[in-house]
Write the structure tokens for this entry.
Amino acid sequence: MAVGDYYHLPYTSTPFEGPEKLLEIWFAPSPAHVPDAHAQKNGRIGLRNVPKQVWEDMLDIVKCKVLSVIEGEETDAYLLSESSLLVFPHRIILKTCGTTLNLLGLPRILEIAHKFASLPSVYRCFYSRKSFMFPERQLGPHREWKDEVSFLDAIFPNGAAYTVGKVNGDHWLLYLTTPGQYDANGETTPSSPNSFSLSPLQSENGEENEINQTLQNVETDTPFTQDYTIEILMSNLSHKARESFFLAPPVQDAPSESPSVIGRTVSSTIGISDLFPPHLTTLDAYAFDPCGYSSNALLKWGDGIEDGHSGEGYYTIHVTPEEGWSYASFECNVPLSTSPSSSAKNIPDLHTLIRRVVDIFQPGRLSLTLFISNANNNAEEDEGETAVEAAQRTFKSTLTAQRPVSCSSGDSVTGDGSGQNDRMLYKRTDKINYQFGGYNLAFASFELR
């Protein structure tokens, strides 16, 4: 059995940086705007036509490796030695932890998009991360936030950098560019998504490549990809939560299990497999030796879900369980209602999902961020709330109201094993709403009472 079920957990002397660097690059407003949107190759368009080896070569620059990949209808999800790579037709998400050189992969990503997907300009770029636990261990431009900003500014003129939260406490760092205003070389492109176009490419013999005709034929009322991202960033995990992510000592002469099999066992044992309805989820999980866990999942969601689906989302989970720097992250782009879900067979509402995640990891501290495009935040919800305010209300009610811990261990959330504290109660230490160009942010941090 792979799940560590003994009291004294292994301890490594070298700290590992769990908080990830998250780079997201949009090369078009939606899949309908990529040049080959109407000329699929084996059901693939845009960046999904890039060969796997090309991505692997780029990841060599970043200093991480591909462990496995699941291919969905709209997304390719690569599980990495340090977190995740998600490839969509029109955008890419590179999420890496430890001392990886995330931003050094950016110039190569731009080259790949141009060469393999005829996408020579950037529609939007986002880079974000939680404050590091061990900033002195970082390398290259990641040593300091100002160096990361300088690196990005050299590629994207007039990008904007923000610090959200307490500078001397848990905070979240964000860099973003204005939609469609600048391409990767600093040249101006139309700022209106409806007039999105690319400069003509030159073929090797100097003749103009007519890929732009496809973009010009995209109707102005084409719906853009919905953009909604919820992150739950957790530290100081309880002893009971952490022990699930340590491999048990090998049993002599017993057949060994693969990291993927062990990862699926862990996922099922502690409830990760049930975060979303299993019939809507394709899960790829990996258990590291001697400790650690990562998973990617592709999710079917949207209207008509009973008869087939209208969207494909994802979630990622990454866990560093060592005492002293324990950390777990959850990220998901499936829009979640702040109203109660009517059935266990449905996509969970925001309250239910947060409760499930927090009950699994039992953190001493956590931060939540909801990053949502203005197009999705204009409609007011119940009581006249915007989506961001409704999310803040849900964050608080989920984490500060008394409720039983859903796990059956009876372990105290503080990890002392006393079993006397069977309720997880948090106090909110920060609440910030932010308006950016085209996006709104809800940020909140909590700590155990």
User: Anything to note?
Assistant: The longest helix spans residues 387-400.
